[in-house]
Amino acid sequence: MSEFFDTHVHLGDAQFDADRLEVLARSLDAGVGRMVEIADNPDEWSRAVGIARAHPDRVRCSLGLHPYYADRFDDGFVARLRAALDAAPEAVAIGEVGLDYARAQVPADVQRTAFAALLEAARDWRVPLVIHCRDAYQDLLLMLRERFPEPPRERRYWGVVHCFSGTPDEARDCARLGFALGADGPVTYKKNDGLREAFRRAGPDTTVLETDCPYLPPQSRRGKRNEPCVIPEIAAKLAEVWDIRIDEVARRTSANAAALFAWP
Questions:
Q1: What is the DSSP string of 66-94?
Q2: Which of 95, 140, 215, 247 sits between 20 and 30 A of 115, alpha carbons compared?
Q3: Alpha carbon separation from 178 to 24, 97, 165, 207, 251 (Å, rounded)
């Protein structure tokens, strides 16, 4: 079977402190060969780089500012991010960054200010984005269209809309702008027919696999800690949605992820 790629993990989370190496071993046993560790805020940047540096064949990282922490954005933030990226070749993306109108305590206008600056930095630096969006797709698409009016010419994607949760039309719009869509555990949930339809229309060439572990476990682990080893369950559901073999899901989504993060 082709190797799986988990494009969004939080192995630095305290939930993994007792068994992080065992989690990595289980993921390899499940066929998950590569993953990207996500740092939500500057306090996590060095830890994410350290995890990637400790596992150079399997892990890269992304450095960002989650909308939960958007009020930490200031005039010097972009320069500090640039310095952190320059100091860590393991860092292959900016994120996660974005908009969250459902749970974030930070006002929406503050989120948009930070997000706009980080979108422009990613565009100017030619670094892929890992975007978080919850209950904010209208504003997200408006901001993306302003800064990325057409798909990239020298690479496949501008970035990924992590844990895509929008409508089929929003999936189409994100893909047309040049963004991949992240498929996570919720695509396996029994009542998520609308989300499965969004991925059916988007197709395998627009999709990457994610766990967002330790969060968002798939149907078989509802209520439990999530791990990268569950990626095959997500892939199996997508194989049903697209009516293709699971090894074809692995091959195509892993190729997408490799292109997204320039990790051959």
A1: -GGGGGG--TTHHHHHHHHHHH-TTEEEE
A2: 215
A3: 31, 17, 17, 12, 20
In sequence order, what E strands does the chain have? 4-9, 32-39, 59-63, 91-100, 129-134, 159-161, 179-183, 207-209
Q: Are 73 and 114 in contact (CB under 8 A)?
A: yes
Domain count, the chain: 1
**Cα(254)–Cα(70) distance, rounded to whole angstroms?**
31
Range of the domain at 87: 4-260
pLDDT tens figures, 90-130: 999 999 999 999 999 999 999 999 999 999 999 999 999 99
Question: pTM of the entire structure?
Answer: 0.97
* 186/153 Cα distance (integer angstroms): 32
Q: In this structure, what are the phi and psi dihedrals at residue 234, rounded to the nearest 5 degrees? A: -65, -45
Residues contacting 117, CB < 8 A, separation 6+: 73, 77, 78
The closest alpha carbon to 93, from 213, 9, 206, belongs to: 9
Bridge partner residues of 181 (DSSP): 161, 207
CATH code for position 83: 3.20.20.140
